[in-house]
Amino acid sequence: MHNSFFKSIILTFIFLSSLFASNEEINQKLFELKTSQEYAPKINDEKITLIMGQIILKENEIKELENKLDELRKDNNSLDNYKNIIDRQDKRIEDVHSNLNYWGIGFSLIAILTGLVVFLVNRSYANSAKKEAKLAAEKELKKWIDEKADEEFKSKVDVYLEEIDERAKKLFERNEGLTQKLEDKIKLLDEKEYTEDEKKELEEEIQEIKSSKNKNDYTFEDKYKLFVSKFVKENYQEALEDLNILEKEALSDNSLSKVLWFKAITLDRLEKSEEAIEVYNEVVKRFEDSKDNNILEQVAKALYNKGVTLGQLDRSEEALEVYDEVVKRFEDSKDNSILEKVAKALYNKGVSLGQLNRSGEATKVYAEVVERFKDSKDNSILNQVAKALVNKIETNLILNKSNSHQDLNLCFQLVKDDKNELIKYNMLTLLEKARDSELDNEIEEWKEEFKDISIENWSFGELKDWANSFENQEMKERLLKYIDIFENHNKK
């Protein structure tokens, strides 16, 4: 009897201890979840899942305890079976046992009821706490995303962006390098002939394009190179056909302006000058209001080349007007590529005035080139200054005017490293001295110095007229002799 009684008491205490321990553990977990100040930045789906799993596990444990409680209730109900046995015992023992049994049962019932109340309260609290914890977690997570996420991830995002920028930069530099290399070659088309090495290099590039790509995969640059290849080979009609195809494609203004400009150049080479002038006019009309300097450069080139073409057609007055238009439109540009066209237009204006026997005006225009651009840092512009000075020196020589030391010194500084221009400068200074004395030895030295150089793009007609203008026969013959040496030097 005592054993059953004490067994009931012990099992009750075990149950309550386990119940309180389980609830205490749940409360601790929930308390830690709600009160943690650091969980928001670290919270993630895995942690939430883990915590919820623990809660569910504890709820299962509580259910198991409830089952044990039901078994205990059955054990307590069996106590009634022992009452008859107790009644047959000694009265003193019966009283003692009765008191003990009464208080034991009462204590057990109180403990069981207390346990049930605690269980129900904690279960309700657990559900409420879970909801509160979830809401608090969502709130803190949103707050962290709004306030901390940028700080947490900004450095990583910046690194990724830098890597992307670096890769894009390298790709751009690679493509820009190819494009600039092609542009440098294309500039030769209108200024000088390709060398054999340059032609060979271009042909190798063309073969690589044809062998590595289908025609449908050709880029704009590929098609551009094919045109250049045909142009260099003087297959102008085929080159023109390529340009006509390119013109019909969906091109940017920058690309279209270049295609049209080269179309005009090609028409010029086909001696279709009037058609070329029409295309030059189209370039100007389409793009004169552009804000892009690359496009405006094509407009300036179109106007300049139009002036050249008009001059070749002996329409010099019209050419002069076009050169003035180039200056008027672009003299205030900050782009050196455009300013180069201004300098070239002024230089050609001076040449045209000289051809019209307006040498005085020509000299003033050459002086304008020098004054405007002598301080430029761009070699292409300084090249125009040098050419203007050479022509100014020649014009003053023909007009029997002295050249200033300033002009002579500046000209020498600009041409001293360019033998193609230096040869002209030295020739003019020798002719100026030859008016007064024989210079046979100096002429021989000149021939030796420039034995591998010829005088290109130079007309000796005006110099011959100048020499013939002298009444002194000896001077006249001496000058004509030297002019003949210069004219026939390394003549091809």
Structure write-up:
With 492 residues, the protein is mainly alpha-helical. Among the domains are: 2-147, no CATH class; 418-492, no CATH class. The protein has 21 helices and no strands. It has helices spanning 2-35, 39-42, 45-77, 83-87, 91-147, 149-187, 196-212, 220-232, 236-248, 253-269, 273-287, 293-312, 316-330, 336-355, 359-373, 379-398, 405-415, 419-434, 440-449, 461-468, 473-488. Helix 9 packs antiparallel against helix 10, helix 14 runs antiparallel to helix 15 and helix 15 runs antiparallel to helix 16. The chain starts with a helix and ends with a helix.
Tags for this model:
492 residues, mainly alpha, 21 helices
List the helices and strands and how they pair.
Elements: H1 2-35, H2 39-42, H3 45-77, H4 83-87, H5 91-147, H6 149-187, H7 196-212, H8 220-232, H9 236-248, H10 253-269, H11 273-287, H12 293-312, H13 316-330, H14 336-355, H15 359-373, H16 379-398, H17 405-415, H18 419-434, H19 440-449, H20 461-468, H21 473-488
Helix pairs in contact: 1-3, 1-5, 3-5, 7-8, 8-9, 9-10, 10-11, 10-12, 11-12, 12-13, 12-14, 13-14, 14-15, 14-16, 15-16, 16-17, 16-18, 20-21
